[in-house]
Amino acid sequence: MKVFVTGGAGYIGSHTLVQLLAAGHEVCVFDNYCNSSPAALARVRQLTNRDLTAIDGDIRDADALTRALADFAPDAVIHFAGLKAVGESNAMPLAYYQTNVTGTMNLLAAMDAAECRRIVFSSSATVYGEARYLPFDEDHPVAPTNPYGRTKAMAEGVIADWATATPAASAVLLRYFNPVGAHESGRIGEDPQGIPNNLMPFVAQVAVGRRDKLAIFGDDYETRDGTGERDYIHVVDLAAAHLAAIGYAARAEGCQAINVGTGQGITVKELVAAYERACGHPIAYEVAPRRPGDVASSYAATDKAERLLQWRTALDVDAMCASSWRWQSENPDGYPGGAED
Ligand code: NAD
Ligand code: UD1
Prior knowledge:
The chain is α/β, with parallel strands linked by helices. The chain has a domain at 2-189 and 232-263 and 298-315: NAD(P)-binding Rossmann-like Domain (Rossmann fold, 3-Layer(aba) Sandwich), CATH 3.40.50.720. It is built from eleven helices and 13 strands. It has helices at residues 11-22, 38-48, 62-72, 86-91, 93-113, 147-165, 199-207, 235-251, 268-279, 303-309, 317-330, and strands spanning 2-6, 26-31, 53-56, 76-79, 118-124, 170-176, 178-180, 214-217, 229-230, 232-234, 254-260, 266-267, 285-288. The strands form four sheets. A seven-stranded parallel β-sheet has the order 3-2-1-4-5-6-11, with helices on both faces. Strand 5, helix 6 (147-165) and strand 6 form a beta-alpha-beta unit. Helix 7 crosses helix 11 (317-330). Nicotinamide-adenine-dinucleotide binds at residues 7, 9-13, 31-36, 58-60, 80-84, 99, 103, 122, 124, 176, 179. Residues 7, 9-13, 31-36, 58-60, 80-84, 99, 103, 122, 124, 176, 179 line the site of nicotinamide-adenine-dinucleotide.
């Protein structure tokens, strides 16, 4: 298949490219590198020994997207490009709506012009908001609690309406839980700019000595050990879900929202203990107040993914931490500057 990948140089995109290329798909990446590096694409080429086309472009630029899709004429699109920091979305909501919502509308219009009818979209479990029950299934009400989550819910709605209005269209809205880990080679991984917002990259930077200690945000939740519980999913499993989703989109019409998680909750303290096993030394931490907006527990119902995509996770928390540690310890400062490596 010819697959057009927006945001392909990013964390989840780069891991998905490895599997797309290994499976023999032809790939065109469209990315403005605002939160990534062309070095990731160089490493994907090295890892797979295959080439891909890369366009330096912005999804807010409708003309550039239209030209790129017309030239490449894809069979399917995987749409990773977006802004993803909750705190930043509170401070600059319009930038989030422009990139995540307008960018998605530009992409669908460009797909129409190029007669491409299949899209797999990076959505998030954050669209569910406060849990009314657990595990979250896909019928749980969508009620996001921050601008980032609202952009994802809106983009889902735009894509669903497009799929309804477009003959033979197929859309898969993948609602990721908490992606972590790295490719087993240690050559590609998550490379956050500044202070990491999320737990696993913070723990990784403490483990490698870039930060002194982790702050555990609250140990008085109603969970096994009082710390927050999340459904961490290995990014390699998540990448495989995208290949399953483009296969599904090729055989089914309509629009489906599908959770992508393991179905298992892991607490902050359990994750820290797993990371200590992986890196071989203790991770310093202190207990700090709860982070505003955090929930006690979040984990996925996974039966819809198993049923429609014939996909389920294979990698456990030890594999998540071991791969993260390999990436972090071999690339303590993330990707090098410059396009090649
Ligand atoms: P990432 O920031 O590593 O990747 C996003 C990519 O999109 C980057 O390469 C960035 O340069 C590119 N991009 C951003 N704005 C762009 C624009 N205007 N034009 C072109 N390219 C642009 O993030 P990621 O973790 O790989 O996430 C990928 C997608 O998955 C995002 O849409 C994100 O919202 C979603 N998601 C991520 C998580 C997570 O925890 N990582 C969870 C749920 C959903
Ligand atoms: C975050 C995002 C959410 C996104 C999800 C998946 C926020 C508020 N929410 O949620 O929109 O969909 O990631 O990527 O950013 N923790 C600490 N110390 C830290 C960091 C985190 O104790 O330094 C705890 C948190 O309180 C939580 C758990 O670790 O219990 C996981 O946190 P995080 O990695 O930020 O993920 P989410 O809270 O699920």
